[in-house]
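ingest -> validate -> predict -> emit
validate: passed (alphabet ok, no gaps, 165 aa)
predict: started
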Amino acid sequence: MPAEEQTIRTVRSDATLIQGGWELLDRVEPLWNQTRDFHFQLAPQWRKGLTWEFTDRRVALIAKGTHGHFIALASVDDRDVGYSICTIEANGRGEIDSLFVEAEFRKQGIGDALMQSSLAWFAERAVDDIAIEALACNEDAVRFYARFGFQPRSVTLKRPGNIYP
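emit:
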């Protein structure tokens, strides 16, 4: 699927949304690294489990998205500032695998545009079993996802590997 660019409605008139597939992964990499670093700072106790390099994440995403994949990339003044990556697994389950907007561009409608384009992509494929995962301590993300109808279904508690009694 070739990348397609469109102007998006945000509070910024200079924002564009590029929609495509794996061909956009190279542009996502620097933003994904920011996502990982943000999670390191937000939840240092989980740092050990968040140490993926993008090359490994790329391989895992491509292997996972056997029945479909989608990337939306938000840009402002030709600068990539946010993205979403979605996959459909062999069992038909959809997942928004990653969604991120740089801090200085949050609360400007860019995250909404990324989420709406992701959900529209799933709807076009009749995928209604869609999941998204967030760190429990990332309350802003949990509230953001709730605005789009996502609700906790179960809670998995983990014990960080670097904590001993």
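The helical segments are 25-42, 54-64, 110-124, 139-146.
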